[in-house]
Amino acid sequence: MTPPLPACDTPRELRALGQPFPNLADALGKRQTINIVAIGSSATEGDGASPEGSYPKRLEVALGARFPGKTIKVFNKGKGGEEAPDEAARFKTDVFPNNPSLVIWQVGPMPPGRTMSSPTSGPPFSGVSIN
């Protein structure tokens, strides 16, 4: 049995984002299973932590405790070393197929001289319908 993780109490002022999460709220009200995707680089993947200690797993456990009776799945799609254009390119394969009610994107660094729509990468969401 894995020992319990230490508490991770976040100060109230850091939890108040000032933005609603309408898709997540709607899913919590209407669905039994709620999917959340965390995408990013090493911090999302859990670099330096056990798989159970990564922030996506800890979030899944915390939300499960906060919303008993709901099945909340947090898909960890972190890949260490990736940069923002690489992460954006993975939305079609790693994010959208999971039908998430919420996406958390820990944006990796952008290499100097490259933009999200540079000629080498193309627009990251070209041809993708986001509803």
- Fraction of residues in helix: 25-40%
End-to-end separation in angstroms reads: 41 Å
Specify the CATH class of the domain at 20-106. Alpha Beta
CATH level-4 homologous superfamily of the domain at 20-106: SGNH hydrolase
Give the number of helices.
6
Which fold does the CATH topology of the domain at 20-106 refer to? Answer: Rossmann fold
Structural class: alpha/beta
- Tell me the CATH architecture of the domain at 20-106: 3-Layer(aba) Sandwich
Tell me the strand order in the biggest sheet.
2-1-3
- Beta-strand segment tally: 3
- As residue ranges, the low-confidence spans are 118-131
Defining traits:
Rossmann fold, alpha/beta, 131 residues
Describe this structure in words.
There is one protein chain. With 131 residues, the protein is an alpha/beta fold. It has a domain at 20-106: 3-Layer(aba) Sandwich (Rossmann fold), CATH 3.40.50.1110. The protein is 31% helix and 16% strand. It is built from 6 helices and 3 strands. Strands 2-1-3 form a 3-stranded parallel β-sheet. The longest helix is centred in the middle third of the chain and has 12 residues, at 55-66. The chain is globular, with a radius of gyration of 16 Å. The protein starts with 11 loop residues before the first helix and ends in a 25-residue tail after the last strand. The model is unreliable at 118-131 (pLDDT under 50).
